[in-house]
Amino acid sequence: MYDYADRPVDSYGPAPASCFSGQLPAASCPGGMAHGHNSYDEGINGLVAAYYDNMTLSGVPKVQRTGIGPADGTIKSSWEYSNDVVPGISSDSFSLRLTGDLVFPAAGATSCGPTSTTASACGSTISSSWTTGR
C-alpha cells in the first residue's frame, strides 16, 4: 500500500496467495498475517526552510531547518524588522527555498503575499515571480 506521494506505507505477508484479494489482504487468513507500517514526517508542522546567503538560491544552503514562524506551521517572519533572517544571514541579501506539502484548511480562494515566489507542483513550475528590494 502506498500513500499520496507514492511512498510505501503498509506491507503484508508473507502469506499464501489465498490470504489476498488482489493486492489487499483478505478478511481472514488462517494463522494470521504479518503486517508492517511506515510513517513519514507525522506530527511535523511547517515546511523545510533552506536559507541561502545570496539572492539566487545558489550553492549549498547556509542554514536548513523545519519551519518558519510559530509551531502551528504558519509561514511568518519579521525579516523586514531585523538585520538577520537567521544568525549570519543578512535580511538585505538572501534567498529561501521552502519545500513540503501544503494542506489548505478548506476549498476556495487562498491568498499569499511574498514579493518573490516560484510555485511548482508535480515537478513543473506553475507560477514564478522574482523581485528584489523591499
Please report the distance between the alpha carbons of the first and last residues: 47 Å
| Estimated structural class | mainly beta
How many distinct folded domains? 2
Largest sheet: 3 strands, antiparallel
Count, helices: 0
According to DSSP, the number of beta strands is: 11
| SSE order | EEEEEEEEEEE
Strand content: 25-35%
Radius of gyration from CA coordinates:
22 Å
Descriptive account of the structure:
The chain has 134 residues and is an all-beta fold. It folds into two domains: 1-40, no CATH class; 44-104, no CATH class. It has no helices and eleven strands. It has strands spanning 10-12, 20-21, 24-25, 35-37, 48-52, 63-66, 84-86, 89-90, 95-99, 117-121, 124-129. The protein has a three-stranded antiparallel β-sheet, with no helix packed on it. A hairpin with a 2-residue loop joins strand 2 and strand 3. The protein is elongated, with a radius of gyration of 22 Å. The termini are far apart. The mean pLDDT is 74.
Short account of what is shown:
The protein is mainly beta and 134 residues long. The chain has no helices and eleven strands. It is elongated and about 65 Å long.
Distinctive features:
2 domains, 3-stranded antiparallel β-sheet, about 130 residues, two-stranded antiparallel sheet, mainly beta
